[in-house]
Amino acid sequence: MTTPAEARALDADDPLRALRDRFMLPEGIIYLDGNSLGPLPRATMAAGRDMIERQWGERLIRSWDEGWMDSPARIGAKIAPLIGAAPDEVIVADSVSVNLFKLLVAALRHHPTRRTIVTEAGNFPTDLHIAEGAAACVPGGRVHAVAREALDDAIDDRTAIVLLTHVHYKTAERFDMAAWTARVQAAGALMCWDLSHSTGAVQVDLGAADLAVGCGYKFLNGGPGAPAFLFVAGRHQAKLTSPLSGWMGHAAPFGFEDAYRPGAGMERWRVGTPAMLAMQALESGVDLFADIDMADVAAKSARLFDMLAAAGDRAGLECVTPRDPARRGSHIAFRHPHARALIDRLIARGVIGDFRTPDIARFGLTPLFLSHAEVQRAGELIVETVAELAETAHAR
Amino acid sequence: MTTPAEARALDADDPLRALRDRFMLPEGIIYLDGNSLGPLPRATMAAGRDMIERQWGERLIRSWDEGWMDSPARIGAKIAPLIGAAPDEVIVADSVSVNLFKLLVAALRHHPTRRTIVTEAGNFPTDLHIAEGAAACVPGGRVHAVAREALDDAIDDRTAIVLLTHVHYKTAERFDMAAWTARVQAAGALMCWDLSHSTGAVQVDLGAADLAVGCGYKFLNGGPGAPAFLFVAGRHQAKLTSPLSGWMGHAAPFGFEDAYRPGAGMERWRVGTPAMLAMQALESGVDLFADIDMADVAAKSARLFDMLAAAGDRAGLECVTPRDPARRGSHIAFRHPHARALIDRLIARGVIGDFRTPDIARFGLTPLFLSHAEVQRAGELIVETVAELAETAHAR
Questions:
Q1: What value does the CA radius of gyration of chain A take, rounded to a whole number of Å?
Q2: CA distance A87 to A90
Q3: How many domains does chain A have?
Q4: Which of residues 241-260 of B touch A (CB under 8 A)?
Q5: Do B129 and A228 touch (CB under 8 A)?
Q6: Are residues A175 and A249 in the same domain?
Q7: What confidence tens digit (pLDDT) does each residue in A3-56 have?
Q8: N-term to C-term CA, chain B
């Protein structure tokens, strides 16, 4: 295990160390849950006041022409470089679930004959649930969810679209994006990635991918329930249309026409009026990435992971996350029969991780605000707490 | 026309006059656009800081158990008395457009044979667009949009659902809710009301209605793009399920099951994670209504309307809003060949109304914050500005 002195030395050499001061972090807490809800960037406080008191309070409806109406495309363009997309291939709207629904229905309808969505059993539940909901909106639509090792066999000439989550929400296992995109496209299907657990945490390059969605409130630090984003490759944009044909996605929202005409480019994926207070917080979170090299983020994520993995080894925990940095995201998951008690005891000691049913203890490693010293200390506390739990179990 | 002295006397007698101090209103502006974007309640500033700095910044994920997770139902229960619904018949989620989609698809699917949505041509565009999108998700689904005077004839034994906007966004014309609900149900169809332009502005009693949606950012003063609400009558709640089967609407969101099981009651209409910054602002706006008698609101709306209607008469404007208070909402619309120029000139003079294509000048009358003196002055400025426009046209 890393020693406190070694951790301090790593902090002294950390190219990202100045970023920590850009966040408000509660005293006495080691926050290993940035993969569930990213912490508050300091800039968001001032930006939030400006949004509420000046933009809304003083400018009122005039603000729609002073940056609000363009915000979905503007923030999308800022997210694009983090996922290897062009600025005009990403837009911010609604939630991950709603955006997935739009893309899956559109993709199912587009193919002349294929009507199956292939996805992974044990994928994040909303991906599975929304896939079912989308399939039910297209005649003949069906979902085929199989274990990861059976995916390759499940893709066939009925497959319209394959939906995979880049980094798994429980295990942090990461798909090889380029290889799977090529595999799916070779079978004549579209590839849709859910980037919720990877955007802002690991280097993402959508490359040839067709469609994607992603989350604003995890590693992008956009605030609780932040709006989500969606991506449609430029070559598909004119062909696909949203089943959620709302007025803000109309070619002329203020033309007030009775008939729907989809907007140009990514604008057609908007539905209702954007929730500007939430949009502002997301933009402030995304702006933090403007001068960050994602290679530095990925390298620090790997170092932090190794520190907690070593602590897990010392504690005798079963690590279900792959050790190879290229095969995982930016959290670490341990399986433990008393995972919930482990997380509860750690929270009581100021280490916030989370429990995922039935037996997973999950710790997020956000390179933007965590110090090596914090993660070193968290590792020590994990070792101590696991030992305590074993004694308690032994005493029973 | 009302004189300044008469307006001051009306203000002195106004049971709602103290409410004005609960809003931040910019100096030198008479804001007649609360029907488009309600102004900032003062309480929202402190609540917004608490949401960002304490609930998010300090409490982080712990806030989900400290009020966030329950907020959609909690805020819905606060909106319920404003629309004549039971507390467990309303929930807050997504946008008006997304909520309409959910209800229309669910209602179309539920009927064994009927597949037609009847609605009004010239309804607010998103109602028409989303109805088209919803109909396309159900085999045989279609939309039949007809002029108001043809609605009665259009409802027949193929009609599954009738979607009407209670108060028209342009003309402010109001449907007789009880009569139309009875008419539609007598034909064996479900009645769905869009309450966007009526909630918080006029007395609404959904009574026997089946379904409804409504907007948070107009007369509820919930902030730009505030989350919307939806209503399902208790007797239908177990029968209807959402096509947007997201994880937050699951019976056990944190059970992480692969198969979707709809949540109990209104919970099933949730989709993704609620945007808490926007939810907080909506709740602060709705809380303003806690000690308000909607009969006072409606009575003041009628007085303010009469003042602007008299000014319009003096100016020779064509009023397209019905004069009878029971047949209109809380804005007034005038038709004018140079409506856009009229609005632009009034804005330059500090009177903010809005233009709706092609020839409508629209002025919102929000009884919570407008004084009679302000509306009296706005009336004078409308008379002057219309006269100026006539001179300009004459000079051409």
A1: 22
A2: 6
A3: 2
A4: 242-248, 250, 253-260
A5: no
A6: yes
A7: 999 999 999 999 999 999 999 999 999 999 999 999 999 999 999 999 999 999
A8: 30
B41 beta partners? B23
| Interface mutation vs chain A, best among B244, B254, B260, B270, most A CBs within 10 Å | B244
Q: Are residues B304 and B251 in the same domain?
A: no
Residue A56 maps to a domain: no
First-to-last CA distance in chain A?
Answer: 30
Options A101, A169, A217, A369, the catalytic residue: A217
Q: What tokens appear for B21 in the block?
A: 């101090």
- Point out which residues pair with A41 in neighbouring strands: A23
The whole-angstrom separation of Cα A229 and Cα A213 is 6
Q: Is residue A148 part of a domain?
A: yes
Q: Which of B228, B255, B287 is the last residue of a domain?
A: B287
- pLDDT, one tens digit per residue, over B70-105 is 999 999 999 999 999 999 999 999 999 999 999 999
Locate B171 and state its tokens.
């003309």
> To 10 degrees, the CA torsion angle through B349, B350, B351, B355?
80
Mean pLDDT of chain A: 97
The residue of chain A with its CA nearest to that of B244 is A133
Alpha-carbon torsion (B99, B101, B106, B111), positive or negative: positive
Distance in angstroms (rounded) separating the CA atoms of residues A248 and A223: 23
C-alpha to C-alpha distance for B133 and B126, rounded to whole angstroms: 10
> For residue A303, what are the domain limits?
4-42+292-395
- The domain that contains B258 carries what CATH number? 3.40.640.10
Kindly report the pTM of this predicted structure.
0.97
Angle formed at CA B26 by CA B20 and CA B27, multiple of 5 degrees: 95
Tokens 């495309």 correspond to: A73
DSSP per-residue codes, B249-285: GBSSGGG--SS--BPSGGGGG--S---HHHHHHHHHH
Q: State which H helix or E strand residue B354 sits in.
A: strand B354-356
Q: How many CB atoms lie within 10 A of CB A352?
A: 23
Q: pLDDT of A292-303, one tens digit each?
A: 999 999 999 999
**Touching check for A284 and chain B: CB below 8 Å?**
no
What's the rounded Cα separation, in Å, for the pair A49 and A55?
A: 9
Nearest residue of A to residue B357, measured between CA atoms = A255
Which of these three, A254, A287, A320, is where a domain ends?
A: A287
Our CA-based measurement puts residue B358 at a distance from the nearest CA of chain A, in whole angstroms, of 9
Residues B332 and B362 in one domain: yes
